[in-house]
Amino acid sequence: MSENSAQVWTARRGYPARKHFNSHSADSDFQRDRARVIHSAAFRQLQSKTQVLGIGESDFYRTRLTHSLEVAQIGSGICERLRERYQVDDAVFAWLPSMSLIEAVCLSHDLGHPPFGHGGEVALNYMMRDHGGFEGNGQTLRIISRLGEYSLEHGLDLTRRTKLGVLKYPGLHGALAHYASTSEVDNSNLDAWIPPKCILDAEADVLDWILEPFSAADRQRFQTYEQRSGKHSRTLYKSFDTSIMDIADDIAYGVHDLEDALAMRLVDFKQWQQEVVVALGDAGIEQIGGKEIGFYSDNLFSGQHKARKHAISNLVNYFIAHIEVVQRDEFEHPLLKLKAQMQAPAGEVLALLKDFIFRRVIKRPEVQAFEYKGQMMILKLFDALADNPMRLLPEEWQEMYREADNKQRVLCDYMASMTDSQATKLYHRFFTPSMGSVFDRI
Questions:
Q1: Is 342 helix (H, G, I), strand (E, B) or coil?
Q2: What pLDDT is attached to residue 341?
Q3: Pairing relation of β-strands 291-292 and 323-327?
Q4: Potential cystine with 200: which of 15, 138, 204, 431 (Cβ 3.0-4.6 Å)?
């Protein structure tokens, strides 16, 4: 990687680059990125935002914060393994992200998720249906580029390469969205308002800045998307760093969320046998990481925490060991040309675990009831704030509301920044007569 290339990817939109951060190492700027994310308010608030199960149900299972920490650990583990595997392949090795860089990307990936998980995301998108929409990944880019506290105009003001790594879906909401006719759906059918995977139109200039170093051909291809009949369009490409983060996220979801489901007894042995073990057998997969399937069945359902953790660790190691880097010849620049992917049959195993968690945990009525309740609270809170912004918004948000061209976006930013508990408390303060005090700060 040339010196000029390095300077391009460590550039920031706001303050000029400083000489070093903690050390004079090559990844000093990415150390600063990681520090800014960890010390940001948005990152701290992830400790009280839903991952899969509702906050407050138990002190054991994962929140968005612990999930993000695990994604960062897995992401750094993937990079260490790839560094060993490709140490004599300079075309790959030179562009592998440093530990600080991949951790900054992974720690940032969920900053934009609102209270009550994906249910809250859909509710906010419904409320913003005529004002630019809402999507969690888009809000993440908005936080690191506009709303974060390290710069008045550029948010956390992270480096260009870190922002590129966080950019999971390089398409604008307005270009990708395809909703049913608004005359056919309302807030009684919120599934119709699931947003496209995108960034928000308001961050179009941020996207342009991130992609500026690439050739015109690379920029155009990277932003292409697939149009689907009757559905939202879908972006097709991710950068090299993003592909690593995305795999780390999938591993954390498929394996660690499985651990939570087992510990909370949300899935049973019979379901595991019928939907996972049988499917693995049908696919001809008899071993995972040198262990017979029976090893995982016995340890995961042993009822003993150490045995369960032993099996979970083996699964994570298995997936990390089966990641390779491939080249996409349609791109010129290595950050777009290179892509991390999971080899078969590991990819099939992970997809099976993710599907099992989705069907048996996320879609179970008890979890959906919690999600629905959160959605209803968000809808009612948003309406109250929209009707009475200068009465009910905190003072600093009132000032932003007065100055904003898109005032609904300010309300959305405020709602999205809340934790589950903050949104619940505010709901009760507004609508439960016996709750709240004039001494409670909004």
A1: strand
A2: 98
A3: unpaired
A4: 138
